[in-house]
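ARCHIVE CARD
CATEGORY: sequence design from structure
SOURCE FIELD: tokenized fold
FIELD CONTENT:
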């Protein structure tokens, strides 16, 4: 029977090989051997001819980084490593299992050991998004690889913030120039500039003073959430942490994002 490895797993293996090109591959595996074929395994091609599992040797890689990338990923059904299994079915809690002492096993959503809808199974297999660069980190531990995640640099943030400032208040100043005006210049310049941009988009949209933007949002969030126990955080972080029940607040922030995208599109066209 002809078979193919799920594209999502080809991406995972390619990223592992790129980051650790000299790694040990002695316990790697995709298509099942005779032992696997006698039982039920995602290493065996399913009714659609797709292998939806892979083994990655632990030696020569940061195995914990790979495990962390797989556990909780929407494409993954379960992971096995050193006699323990961690699955979507049981909330990603580790449970006793057997085998897989020198490698980790990862199975995608499937119709073999699982009963996921075919639509979800095929979507998981076809999703070739990055596994190991989810947080924008570049290659580590040797080797070169390009992340599929676009990294926003402090210079990019400065460009965005400057466009927001100019559109709302005129002038050609760069937002980063305002760092020198801060009473206590922050150590994280990118976060400061991003927060500045969000505040001025808020002000331009709702007519508030930029100084009041964070306080207004914090007050709204505090009525429905316990996440604001500490000092105010940036507006973007507040938006990320806001519970879905604050519908009116989310609608306002969507308007902010739309305004920012419009400004960026205008700036890109001008440049």
């Amino acid at each position: 029977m002809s078979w193919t490895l799920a594209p999502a797993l080809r991406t995972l293996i390619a990223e592992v090989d790129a980051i650790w090109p000299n790694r040990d591959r002695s316990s790697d595996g995709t298509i099942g051997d005779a032992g696997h074929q006698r039982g039920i395994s995602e290493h065996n091609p399913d009714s659609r001819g797709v292998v939806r599992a892979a083994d990655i040797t632990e030696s020569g890689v940061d195995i914990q980084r790979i495990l962390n990338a797989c556990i909780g990923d929407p494409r993954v059904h379960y992971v096995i490593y050193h006699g323990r299994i961690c699955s979507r079915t049981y909330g990603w809690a580790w449970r006793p299992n057997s085998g897989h002492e020198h490698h980790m096993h990862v199975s995608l959503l499937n119709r073999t050991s699982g009963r996921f809808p075919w639509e979800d199974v095929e979507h998981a297999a076809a999703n070739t998004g990055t596994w190991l660069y989810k947080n924008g980190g570049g290659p580590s531990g040797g080797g070169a690889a390009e992340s599929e995640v676009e990294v926003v640099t402090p210079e990019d943030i400065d460009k965005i913030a400057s466009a927001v400032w100019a559109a709302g208040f005129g002038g050609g100043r760069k937002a980063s120039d305002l760092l020198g005006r801060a009473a206590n210049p922050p150590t994280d310049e990118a976060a400061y500039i991003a927060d500045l941009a969000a505040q001025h988009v808020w002000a331009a949209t709702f007519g508030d003073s930029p100084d009041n933007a964070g306080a207004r949002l914090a007050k709204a969030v505090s009525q429905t959430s316990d996440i604001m126990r500490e000092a105010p955080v940036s507006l973007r972080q507040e938006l990320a942490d806001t519970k879905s029940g604050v519908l009116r607040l989310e609608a306002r922030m969507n308007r902010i994002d739309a305004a920012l995208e419009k400004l960026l599109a205008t700036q890109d066209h001008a440049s």
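CARD ANNOTATION: The radius of gyration is 24 Å. Residues 247-270 form the longest helix (24 residues).
SHELF: design records, drawer C
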